[in-house]
Amino acid sequence: MLTVERLTRIFANRYDTVAGGVREADFALAQGQFFTLLGPSGCGKTTTLRCIAGLEKPDAGRIVLAGRPLFDGAAGLLVPVHQRGIGMVFQSYAIWPHMTVFENVAFPLRVGRRMAREEIARQVDRALATVGLGAYGPRPATRLSGGQQQRVALARAIVHEPKLLLLDEPLSNLDAALREEMRIELRRLQREIGITTVYVTHDQSEALAMSDLIAVMDRGRIVQLDAPRAIYFTPASAFVARFIGAANLLAGVAAAAVAAGTLGAVRLDGGAVIQALFPAAAPAGTRLSVAVRPESITLGTPDGTANRLDGTLADVSFLGATLRCDVAVGAEMLRVATTADVAPAPGAAVRLAFAPQAAIALRAEG
Amino acid sequence: MSLAAVNARRVLPLVTGLLLAALMLPPLAMLVHGSFAQTNAAGAVTGWTLHHFRALLTAPGVGTTLWNSLVFSAGSTVLSLAVGGLLAWLVERTNAPLRFLATLSTIISMGTPYVLHVVAWLFLLGPVGPANGLWQAAGGAGKLIEVQSMGGMILIEGFLWSPLVFLLLGATFRAANADMEEAARTSGASVPATIWRISLPLAMPAILALALFVFIRAIGAFEVPALVGIPSRIYVLTTTVFESMKTMPPDLGQASAFAVVMVAIVAVLLHFYGRLSANAEKYHSVTGKGFRPRPFDLGAWRWAAGALIVANFIIVLLLPMIALVWMALQRFPRGFSMAGLKTLTLSNFNAVIEAPNYLDLAFNSLLVAAGAASAIMALAAFAGWIAARNAPGGRVLDQLSTLSLVFPGIVLGVAVMEVYLRVPLPIYGTLWIILIAYIIRFMPFGMRYVYAGVLQLHRELEEAAAVAGAGTLTILRRIVAPLLRPAMVAGWLFIFLIANKELAIAVLLASPGAQVAAVAVFDLWVNGQGGELAAFGLLWTLLMTVVAVLFFWQSRRGGADIWGN
């Protein structure tokens, strides 16, 4: 449906050598897919989105939407933004304050095409009904809450039945409760309409909950392109592991050569040897960061063949559903999430255990 | 449709740029040309010469003229900053009573032509005026104030500028973050210590920038030097240019040479002004929404502060207005006295209302000012949008449209005259030439209004329209224009107001058949018709005050706080 090939747009930066933008981004989306560009601020995710929208002119690469090339650097082809037939929701919503809700939503139908008045009214009403704002048409756009503005922006983006929907951090301006609600709502709507969607966010839980496919970006490059589960359980790098959730990263070296996709031994810097899953092959002595999720670690006396580490409980925080325990293991501090019913006291000696499959051995960064 | 839309992004800056260049560049070029041109008796150029500059250097009194300009500008800058600054602080940052009086005097003085103020002050401080009258009645010998002096010029000019300082510094003080002052107070600083060590240093960059701005405007000031200075033979640069244009035949060469010198001085000062005000931006401490400054509690001192505000109101507004009313009601000029009460008459008002030329005059003025304001806002709408959005050509457009800031009014008058004496367009001696001069002169103000207005519009509002399928022209028409309307209306009213006050440009370009109000007031004064002048001036001020009220109301709504800059 949407194909992006070697998309590059680099911003010159006159203050330091690190330039922003996106470098050689590659991805292809199937019809109806919900695709998320995820990364920290400045990673190039918004630039990628704006290149697809036509708000930014790429330096090189190719963008094809439903068989129609929108940009081709080699052929010198650039379809201007207003002829791309795309729907987009902006971070600020960009609801025009001088128009009513109806006029805002009708705008894409009024510009650039001739459409009968009744047809416009019919389509606008349908779009407003879809987002649950059926009765809001005559209301001035300035008299809307944040969540309502969000819905108007969405109605405006889908009213002309575009082939592609672009969402630029649309939930970041909402409060926590509303964000949760809109996340589910947005996903439901997207499935219902079946529209291919590109979503930009820096919130990993949003990305995991909503997406069919996630591209994690770092400093202008896509560092992992995978389904949410794969991103979460088998991060491709220490960066992804850290960014996608609060993973513990243990420094060590490969004790022996390990083949890709198998278990192997890692000698941690503290001296302990653990078994970990190697997503990629590593020769003996490779510097590694072993990612272990806080919820994969159990406190106390486990059974079986699990990896074990001895440490001292440094701090316990009560988080409601879970307890967060900070455990000092040698020079490293590990975070452990346990259920709230056990309440060990700080200062106690504890034993940590986790399964080898829950420890992902990643090539160390830098 | 697609082709037009794509091209609009390129064609728009080009067309706007060509129009601006055609307006802005010729005056500067002609000025420089005129200062080097050797002309014969008929005015035709016969060659090139440095003669005008040499004459300027060797002319007797040229050093004095420069020195006078400096003293006059520096003195009035300091005075207006002290008066306007103190007032602005009291009004914006304290709980002094009667603060509305300061705003009221500012609004009304916006609508009053400067020349009218000057006339009123000359009356008040003059030989027969109440200041000297009271002095003599109290047994003083001679005169308390000799208004026809450098001191008198500075005094009048300083009070003339204080409302503008009040407005601009008011904006600065309003924008000061009270958190910083409260942080100082909770750290144990007294109110004076907080003001001295926190408030003042924070406002200092803005104050310095404004001081330079007022200084630049005072260098180009014409009203006070002409009405007060010329009769007492105290010449500054502007009046020297004016005098060499008024000799028969006009000495265009020398006027141009003086003008080039002034433009150079102003250009250098403007450069530093740009740097200063960029520096002031950095200190802008307001962040976020829902911000409300919290005023200082002056305690018992608030009544002293209130007295200051009242005194300023009396000096800046009430006394000049009373003086004008008195002058308007007397058939012959005379000082305040009980005897004068018996000779009160409405004959001056009758003369003004019955004589058809005053009505024509008023109509001409309004027409030219409205025409200039409309043309400027139309052109500035495109130029300002392109510049604010960093579109290709934006920087050039910005520089072109603000180029005329280097022209003091009188200099622009000379330059425009030179251009349209040579261009084969029959507009010399008509209102059209005044209109063109106004457009050139006030374009920077229109540009600032649009520019600041566009910066307040979130870029995504336009991008959303583009994604929705709108081309550049559609976006401008359907999104930018409606949202920019408050800033456009405020800009239009502002230009309309200052164009109607403008004397310096029009004084050289107006002719008996094409006259505007400020020039007419000037001529009436020169001819000694003080009574009719005052009557006409009061009626005119009344009309302009209505416009000024509209302007303030609109500025509050539009949130545009870019007065005079």
Q: Could you explain the architecture of this structure?
A:
The complex is a heterodimer of chains A (366) and B (565). By secondary structure, chain A is an alpha+beta fold. Chain A is built from 8 helices and 21 strands. In chain A, the strands form 4 sheets. In chain A, strands 7-8-9-3-10-11 form a 6-stranded mixed β-sheet, sandwiched between helices. In chain A, α2 packs across α3 (117-130) and α2 (101-110) packs parallel to α4 (146-158). Chain B is mostly helical. The longest helix of chain B is centred in the first third of the chain and has 35 residues, at 2-36. Chain B has a two-stranded antiparallel sheet with strand order 1-2. Chain B has helices at 2-36, 51-58, 62-93, 100-111, 114-125, 130-137, 150-175, 178-186, 191-219, 223-229, 237-246, 252-282, 302-328, 338-342, 347-354, 356-388, 394-402, 409-422, 431-456, 459-467, 472-501, 504-509, 517-526, 530-558; strands spanning 37-39, 45-48. Classes of the chains: A alpha+beta (366), B mainly alpha (565).
The helix-strand sequence of chain B is HEEHHHHHHHHHHHHHHHHHHHHHHH
Calculate the terminal CA-CA distance of chain A, rounded to whole Å.
37 Å
What is the SS-derived class of chain A? alpha+beta
Instruction: Write down the Rg of chain B.
Output: 25 Å
* Strand proportion of chain A: 35-45%
Total helical elements of chain A: 8
Number of strands of chain B: 2
Rg over alpha carbons of chain A: 24 Å
Q: Strand order of the main beta sheet of chain A, please?
A: 7-8-9-3-10-11
What structural class do the secondary elements of chain B suggest?
A: mainly alpha
Mean pLDDT of chain A: 89
Biggest sheet strand order of chain B reads 1-2
Q: Which blocks of ≥5 consecutive residues of chain A have pLDDT under 50? A: none
Could you give the order of the helices and strands of chain A? EEEHEEEEHHHEHEHEEHHEEEEEEEEEE
Please give the alpha-carbon distance between the first and last residues of chain B. Answer: 39 Å
How would you sum up the global shape of chain A?
Answer: globular
- Main β-sheet of chain A: number of strands, strand sense, barrel status? 6 strands, mixed
